[in-house]
Predict the 3D structure of the following.
Amino acid sequence: CKLAGAAGCTFVHKAVVAIQQVEEAEDDRRYVVVLDDGGRVLAHRVLVAAGSYFNSYPLLPAGPGGANVELDLQLAKSQVVRLQLGAKDVERLEGMPSVIFKGEHYACYMLPPIKYPDGHWYIKLGGFRDGLNLSYTERELPGHTDMVRWYHDHGDAEWAKAMESMLHDLVPGLVPMKVVSDSCVTVQTPTGQLYVGQVAKGLGVVAGCNGFAAKSSDEIGNLAGRMVMIDDFEKEETWSYELPRSTFVPRIEK
C-alpha cells in the first residue's frame, strides 16, 4: 500500500458490492465499480482479488451482454494459530524466514514473528496433522452464510491444539504469552492452481490459491498486476511471465 500511495494511487476505503460493464464507455472506461455506500468508480481496468467472497457478489460482468458470471471455486474451512511472543523470543527469532514444512506426520506453513496492530509480536502457523484432519465434507462451506458463520468462530479447538504442538515441535523453547486461534477459509480450484487471467477485456481476476498463498503473496500480486495491464490478453505472445499462461486460466462455473 505504501508503494502504491507513493506512486500516486488513491485509496477508497469502501466495500465493493458489484462491478458492471458500461454500455457506452467514455475514454475507454468500460467498468463501473459500485460501492456499499452507493458511490461509483469508473475504471479502464479492474483487478478483482476478492478471496473467498468472489461468488458472494456480482463482481464479474463477463457473460453475454455484461451478465455476471461466477468462478469455479470451492470453499473449505481452515484455521491458524498465533503465539504471542515475549521480547526474548522475538529477539531470538530475528531473521527467521517463512517456512513450508512437509514431514512424516504433518505439513504446515509458518511465518516469522510479525508485529500486529495491537502492538504485540506473533508467530503464525497453519497446517494439518495426520489423524486430525477434518474430511472435506466436514470442511466444505457450501454458501456465503456458512462462510460468514465460520469466520465469526475461532475454529476447532482440537485442530488448534494440534497446530500449537507443531509450532513447539518446529521451534523448540518458545514461551508464548498467549495462544490465539483464528478461523479462515481456503479457496480451492479444480485445477489445483491459482487463477490469474482476464475473464473479459480489462477485467482480471486472481483467485483460488488452494491454501498456498501465505508466503507467496508478493509474487502472486506481481503476476496479477502484470496480467491486468496486458491490452491484448487473448494473444499468447503478450504473456511474458516465466510460467505459461495456461497454468493459471480461470474456469467459469457452468
